[in-house]
Amino acid sequence: MDVHCTTCGEPWDTYHLWHDAIWDTGLSEAEIRAWEKLPQSGKLAPKWRQQFEAACYVFGRTVINVIRCPACPKDAQPDRAKVQINAEIENLLAGDEDGLAATYEDHGL
Question: Which of 22, 58, 81, 109 is the most exposed place for a label (fewest CB within 10 A)?
Fold first, then answer.
């Protein structure tokens, strides 16, 4: 299942975001293994967000809401309407990342 970056429209496979994107951060294997054991609610704590941002990923409340990604042109700006829509859907489906991903995919978000 794919979701799209709200800045450049790049499709991202949800499996990649849940399991592989963390390996792009430059964290040690031990840190990555620790991240993998966290509940979804802890995976974007400030420490982890900072590491993702260093790897050019910016997420909403979950890694399924891709606001900026490594494929984005340097000066590109996110689509503000999509950012707001995605955030509202995240609020409605909090805790249901599969449902969130399916909703984003169904609506091309």
Answer: 81
Measuring CA to CA, which residue among 102, 108, 101 is closest to residue 6? Answer: 108
Q: What is the pTM of this model?
A: 0.90
User: At CA 36, angle to CA 33 and CA 39, rounded to 5?
Assistant: 140
39-69 confidence digits (pLDDT tens): 888 999 999 999 999 999 999 999 999 999 9
- A 10 A CB-CB count for 90 gives 19
Q: What is the 3-state secondary structure (H, E, C) of the chain?
A: CEEECCCCCCEEEHHHHHHHHHHHCCCCHHHHHHHHCCCHHHCCCHHHHHHHHHCCCEECCCCCCEEECCCCCCCCCCCHHHHHHHHHHHHHCCCCHHHHHHHHHHCCC
As for how many domains the chain has, the answer is: 1
- For residue 73, what are the domain limits? 2-106
